[in-house]
Amino acid sequence: MSNAIEARHLRKVYPKSPPGVAALADLSLDVPTGRVYGLIGRNGAGKTTFVRIASTQLAPTSGSLRVLGHSVEGEEREIRSRIACVPQESRPLYFLNVEEVVYLYLKLRGLDPADAKRRTRDVLEELSLVEYRRRPVSRLSGGLRRRAMCAMVLASDAEVLFLDEPTTGLDPIARREVWEAIRRTSRENRTIVLTTHYLDEAEALSTRLALVERGQVLLEGSPADLRGRVRYPYRVVLQGAYPREELEGLGQVSAIEGGYLVFAREAEARELARRALERGIRVSLGPVSLEDIFLDVVGRSIESEETSESPEEPEVEA
Ligand SMILES: Nc1ncnc2c1ncn2[C@@H]1O[C@H](COP(=O)(O)OP(=O)(O)OP(=O)(O)O)[C@@H](O)[C@H]1O
Ligand SMILES: [Mg+2]
Q1: Has residue 118 got a pLDDT over 70?
Q2: Residues by chain with Cβ below 5 Å of ion ligand 2
Q3: Which helix or strand (DSSP H or E) is residue 266 part of?
Q4: Per-residue pLDDT tens for 227-270?
Q5: How far is the CA of 152 from the centre of ligand 1 (A)?
Q6: Residue 318 in this model has a pLDDT that exceeds 80
Q7: Residue from 11, 40, 47 whose mutation best tests the ligand 1 pocket (most atoms within 8 A of CB)
Q8: Start-end ranges of CATH 3.30.70 in the chain?
Q9: Atom 3 (ligand 1) nearest CA
């Protein structure tokens, strides 16, 4: 099968939400098998809601969602044994130690004791948790607890892994260890759905990405596809006294500490870099980052939403 997950016109309205407010408005996407699929978007965009529906913890209001060929409505049992999830808010069993929590999780998933033992040992090593293996989970720091949670899921044999902000609160070294474990998992032809607010992480790991905004997919594709869809795919940083008037009409210009940041099309960006170098101004030129794309696309979506809304009553009368 080429897609591990297929979502069509997915809609979710939480029971107690205000009328007409949907956490997922009309979300459709395909997650290819054996790849890392990144979900990015602002707080409240609907990422966790999608993860909860896809991992059969929450029923959709309407639309369809198939995981490994099975519907999340009616075929939950077929799905559950083949997936694993690191929820956004998670508390592994506090009274167990790190080694026990991983081992028992694997045993509960049906792995035989020898395999569970080997996988536990490997993952504790992979995520540098060996020195903490005998420590009760209740006595771990927040980041170590998160790592223990990641260890459980990344050591499993699940075919689809849902990782909802797995690296939030992790130090930079631990984050990279989780990245490596995610890459290893995807090399085993298993599928990973990853949500993250670290856009460098989303870009480094994801084969494809969906930018979710107000419960819909605003932009979808490989990182290269996304770059091809923005107005200005290049960024130029000028450090020095470049004449502001000569930047007019080149693209999108903003003042930064000691110079300018310019977003432009390739030809304009290269020409600007050449002229800056002639003037002896420090310049860097490169493709836009995922963060640039996010700020541009989501920023414009917020603007268009604001202008299409009817003007609100002023809070304070003049
Ligand atoms: N249990 C709930 N009951 C009612 N509304 C909810 C519930 N959980 C989430 N929501 C609402 O649904 C929308 C989507 O929330 P969701 O948690 O899916 O966003 P998210 O993209 O994961 O955000 P974040 O980046 O902050 O984790 C938000 O408006 C949120 O307030
Ligand atoms: Mg969330």
Answers
A1: yes
A2: 47-48, 88
A3: helix 266-278
A4: 888 889 999 999 998 999 999 989 999 999 999 999 999 999 99
A5: 25
A6: no
A7: 47
A8: 231-287
A9: 14
Note the pLDDT tens digit of each residue in 41-59: 999 999 999 999 999 999 9
% of the chain surpassing 70 pLDDT: 97
Q: pTM here?
A: 0.92
Q: Is the pLDDT of residue 63 over 70?
A: yes
Residue for token pair 């009328």: 19
Residue ranges, comma separated, of all CATH 3.40.50.300 domains in the chain are 3-227
Which residue's CA is the closest to the ligand 1 atom numbered 27?
43
Q: Say if residue 153's pLDDT is above 60.
A: yes
- Which ligand ends up closest to the CA of 164? 2
**Cα gap 126→148, rounded to integer Å:** 11
* Length reported for the chain: 318
- What is the CB < 6 Å shell around ligand 1? 14, 16-17, 23, 41, 43-49, 88
CA angle centred on 173, ends 167 and 174, rounded to 5°: 40
Class of domain 3-227: alpha beta
Residue with CA nearest ligand 1 atom 1: 14
- Architecture of the domain made up of 231-287: 2-Layer Sandwich (3.30)
Phi, psi of 128 (to 5 degrees): 50, 50
Q: Which atom of ligand 1 is nearest to the CA of 51?
A: 18
CA dihedral 117, 120, 124, 126 (to 10 degrees): 110
- Ligand 2 centroid–CA 23 distance in Å is 11
Residue 251 has which token pair?
Answer: 């693209």
Torsion of CA 112, 84, 224, 10, to 10 degrees: 150
- Tokens 């054996």, residue located: 34
Cα 314 vs. chain centroid, distance in angstroms?
Answer: 37
Q: Which atom of ligand 1 is nearest to the CA of 41?
A: 21
